[in-house]
Amino acid sequence: MADITRRFGWRHLRSAPTAHIRHHKRGRLAHDGQGLSFWYRSLSAALSEVPVDDRELAMAFHARTADFQDVTVQATVTYRISDPAEAANRLDFSVDPDTGSWRGAPLEQIATLLTETAQQHTLDVLARTPLAAALVDGVASVRERVATGLAAEPRLPATGIDVVAVRVVAIRPEAEVERALRTPAREQIQQEADRATYERRAVAVERERAIAENELASQIELARREEQLVDQRGTNARREAEEKAAADGVRTEAEAARKVRLARAEAEAARETGGARAEAQAAWLRVHGEVDPATLHALAATRLAENLPRIESLTLSPDVLTGLLAKLGRPEGGAAA
User: Fold this and answer.
1) What are phi and psi of 59, to 5 degrees?
2) Which of 20, 146, 189, 196 is in Cβ range 3.0-4.6 Å of 84 for a Cys bridge?
C-alpha cells in the first residue's frame, strides 16, 4: 500500500519498489511506473496500484478418485503480475486517493481464478486415477497437469499474470480411509517386529541353553576333578598311614632293641656290681672273722659314734663305765689306763 500524506489541499504519494503506480489526471496518464513519488490533487486523480512481486497462493480443495474416494489436495501456486497495465485494465486495482487503500479486492479475484483453474485440472486427473495410485504417484501427476493447465489458460496472459511455479504439497484421503490404508502396512511392520522378537527370543533361548550346557559341563568336570581329588587324598592318607605305621614299627623296634640293650647292660652291671659287692662282703666278713671280738666291738662303737648326733660333753658315773667296759669285754684296769 502506498503512503499518502496531505499538504495544503495537495496529496503526496510514495509507493514501494514492488508496486506499479498508474496515475490518470483528467483522463490522461500522468504517471506510470514502479516506486514513484509525486504530488497530485485528489479531486482530479485516478490512481491504480498493481503489485509486481512474486506472491504465494496456498490452496486446498477436495477431489474424488476413480474409485469414488474423497481426497484433499494441498497445493501452492507462485505467480506474479508481469503486465501491470493489462492487469489494471482487466481488474480493479484502483486505490482511494485520500487513504491509498484498494477500493476492490483484485488479489482475491486472482486467487479465485488460479484456484478454480488448478482445481479443474486436478479433478480431471484424479477422476481417472484410483486412490492407491493417486496416493503413490498423484502428487507428481497433479503438479504436472496443473502447471500445464495454468500455462495454457488464456485468461491469465490476458490479465497480465504469469505462473512462476506450482507445488503440490499433499494428497490425503479421509481419516478413516487413511487409517484403513495404513492397517496392512502396520500389520506387516508388526509381523516383522514380532518375527524379530521371536528370533531374538530364540537366539536368547539358544544362548541360555548353551550357557546351561557349559555350566553343566563345568559342574561335571568339577565333580570329576573332585572325585580325583578325593581318591588322591585317600591314596595320600593310606600312604601316610602306611608310612607312619612303618615309621612307628621301626621306632618301636629301635626302642625295644635299645631297651633290651639297656636292660642287658643294666643286668650285666648289676651282676658285676653284685659280684663285686659279694666279694667285698666276703672279704669284709673274712676280715672280721679273723679279728678278735674286742676289735669288732670297738669298730661297732666307732660306727655307732659316727651315726649318732654330735655330743659336746658326756658325763659317766663309775658304775655306768664299769658296766660298759664289762660289756665290751675289757678289764677295768685297762679302761682306766
Assistant:
1) -140, 150
2) 20
- What are the tens digits of pLDDT across the range 64-98? 899 888 999 999 999 999 999 899 888 889 888 88
Residue 53 CA to residue 80 CA, distance in Å, equals 6
Residue 296 near residue 330 (C-beta atoms within 8 A): no
pLDDT value at residue 308: 66
Residues lower than pLDDT 50 in the chain: 332-337
Take residue 70 and report the three cell numbers written for it. Answer: 474423497
Chain CA centroid to CA 1, Å? 63
Q: What angle do CA 22, 24, 29 make, to 5 degrees?
A: 80
Average pLDDT score over the chain: 85
Axis-axis angle for helices 293-307, 318-328 (nearest 10) = 120
Burial of 118 (0-12, 13-18, 19+ CB in 10 A): buried
Distance CA 34, CA 223 (A): 102
| Residue 183 DSSP SS3 | helix
